[in-house]
TrEMBL record:
It is found in: Cytoplasm. This is Urease accessory protein UreD. Residues 1-43 are annotated as: Disordered. Keywords: Chaperone, Cytoplasm, Nickel insertion. It comes from Streptomyces gobitricini. The gene is ureD. Residues 34-43 have a biased composition (Basic residues). Belongs to the UreD family. UreD, UreF and UreG form a complex that acts as a GTP-hydrolysis-dependent molecular chaperone, activating the urease apoprotein by helping to assemble the nickel containing metallocenter of UreC. The UreE protein probably delivers the nickel. Required for maturation of urease via the functional incorporation of the urease nickel metallocenter.
Length: 284
């Protein structure tokens, strides 16, 4: 993850703890203890964890480049912000975030800056896994900043969500294909959502070198370099299903076979993509 504005490639050397600088390669550092396993020539392996209950955050565990901070929230939501503690993901990295929202809890997870996938010394691809579990009568707003696929990078990202029947979810994903003036790296993302044990959505997208032919053609991106999804799952849709419709010139709202809607959008840049998804979110 790289600190800065949305899509910014600027990074910092490492996080700072109350006891001094934190190095992910220092086993005595607060971030490195526990679930971080640095591999000097094969990337960093790290898993960060969040557990939210109606009473608060019994688990908030940072790891490696994934620094979690409780931040100020409004309304009934507990809020956690992901702060980039070092440049990641790089080739060979294996990163993961696990979030569990227990029965009756309400959690918002956002990020301080865009995530920039970069090439590393390791020739292999990087992995970034997100595993979300949302319990009964609970709600998760998963609202990270953009994922930027820089030239020469190779990232596989997998998001798996398990929802209780009465859970609510707002999930946003945004992919920016290349920084300003450069070609994208290779990016493969997959989003799988299950509700009450039944599959609700299973979608895979692939872009850049090595992706199936036509990913940049008129039937897919039509030359756009920003693509995003907004998924809203709410039991209220059992009573009033959303109507399919276009949103502007480059986004569409599609009801799913369940109490959910999916908005997909393309845009020439990150700013206009966010505007379209924010408009859709407000309408929903």
């Amino acid at each position: 993850m790289s600190p800065g504005g949305p899509g910014s490639p600027v990074s910092q050397a490492g996080p700072v703890s109350p006891t001094g600088p934190v190095s992910p390669l220092n086993p005595a550092s607060p971030v490195s203890r526990g679930r971080t396993r640095p591999v000097h020539h094969r990337g960093v392996h790290a898993t960060a964890r969040i557990v939210a209950t109606p009473a608060g955050l019994p688990v908030l565990e940072s790891a490696g480049p994934l620094a979690l901070r409780r931040t100020r929230a409004t309304g009934p939501y507990t809020r956690v912000t992901v702060v980039g503690a070092m440049t990641a993901p790089l080739g060979g990295d294996r990163l993961a975030v696990e979030a569990e929202v227990r029965d009756g809890a309400r959690l918002t997870v956002d990020a301080a800056a865009a995530t920039v996938a970069l090439p590393g010394r390791d020739a292999g691809h990087a992995r970034y896994d997100v595993r979300l579990t949302v319990g009964g009568e609970s709600e998760l707003r998963w609202l990270p900043e953009q994922l930027v696929s820089a030239h020469g990078s190779d990232l596989r990202m997998r998001t798996v969500v398990d929802l209780a029947a009465t859970a609510r979810l707002v999930l946003r994903e945004e992919q920016i294909l290349g920084r300003h003036g450069e070609e994208p790296g290779t990016l493969v993302t997959r989003l799988t959502v299950r509700r009450a044990g039944r599959l609700l959505l299973d979608q895979e997208l692939a872009y850049g070198p090595g992706a199936p032919g036509g990913w940049d053609g008129g039937a897919v991106l039509a030359g756009h370099r920003a693509v995003g999804q907004l998924l809203v799952v709410d039991p209220a849709y059992d009573e009033r299903a959303a109507e399919p419709r276009l949103i502007g010139d480059s986004a569409a709202l599609t009801p799913l076979a369940g109490p959910a809607v999916l908005v997909t959008a393309v845009a020439p840049d990150a700013l206009r993509l966010r505007r379209v998804l924010d408009e859709a979110r407000a309408a929903l």
